[in-house]
Design a protein that fits this description.
L-fuculose-1-phosphate Aldolase, binds zinc ion, 231 residues, alpha+beta, disordered N terminus, 8 strands, single chain
């Protein structure tokens, strides 16, 4: 087993497999995917990816079902095939050298808002502004994996760390699998809160001066494009 081909030691890759599997199964447990929906990738050295396979429920995945892909998405390890939405993951990795992991779900509250044409509003809650900034984009529907969709995703991914895709679902990414997962979780949680607030009355947002302070705290925490550009 030529693990050295992708320059990651066997113990490290074994740990990554366990973590990626746990997160993929969690997507099913949380009710964020159905059927074969959803996918998770981890960037390995040399633009290789550790990924969930296509055509399998996240409930039924085992470590042996995970696949290692080379930079052209050819399968180096594992007997299964890559999912077509890998192009969305690649689009994010291409414009964000800092990103190590991407999580995609069809979580119902976030997806309901995306189907209704409503963006998730992080300015409802202070913690959300610090974690994800003042905006979580809702990208207008484009044909899945089309050049138009890739272009709009890359434009947003340069600035943001999570978003919803119109008539589709959630994409979140981060420094590692845990951060990408937590961002996907936060989007679904915010969407659930927002939907309930919409049922009760209207969604209110924090005062503008407070947003300035929160965005400053976000920058100081090393989050967001301004913090990244400072290295
Ligand atoms: Zn999808």
């Amino acid at each position: 087993m030529a693990l050295h081909r992708f320059h990651l030691g066997e113990p490290t890759l074994a740990m990554a497999r366990r973590q990626l599997l746990a997160i993929a199964q969690e997507l099913h447990t949380r009710g964020w995917v159905a059927n074969h929906d959803g996918n998770v990738t981890l960037r390995l050295p040399g633009e290789h990816l550790l990924a969930t396979p296509t055509a399998m429920s996240k409930r039924a995945l085992t470590e042996n079902d995970l696949i290692v892909l080379d930079a052209r998405d050819r399968v180096l390890q594992g007997g299964r095939r890559p999912f077509s939405e890998i192009k969305l993951h690649r689009a994010i990795y291409a414009v964000r050298p800092d990103v190590r992991a991407v999580v995609h779900t069809h979580a119902p509250n976030a997806t309901a808002l995306a189907v209704a044409g409503v963006a998730i509003e992080p300015k409802m809650l202070a913690e959300a502004v610090v974690s994800l900034g003042a905006e979580i984009p809702l990208l207008p529907y484009r044909f899945p994996q089309s050049a138009e969709q890739i272009a709009q995703l890359q434009e947003a991914a340069r600035i943001h760390d999570a978003l919803t895709l119109g008539n589709h679902g959630v994409l979140a990414w981060g420094d590692d699998l845990e951060q990408a997962y937590l961002r996907a979780e936060l989007l679904e949680h915010l969407a659930a809160i927002q939907l309930r607030a919409m049922q009760i009355g209207r969604v209110t947002t924090l005062p503008a001066p407070d947003l300035v302070r929160l965005l400053d705290a976000r920058k100081k925490a090393g989050l967001g494009p301004e913090a990244r550009s400072k290295g």
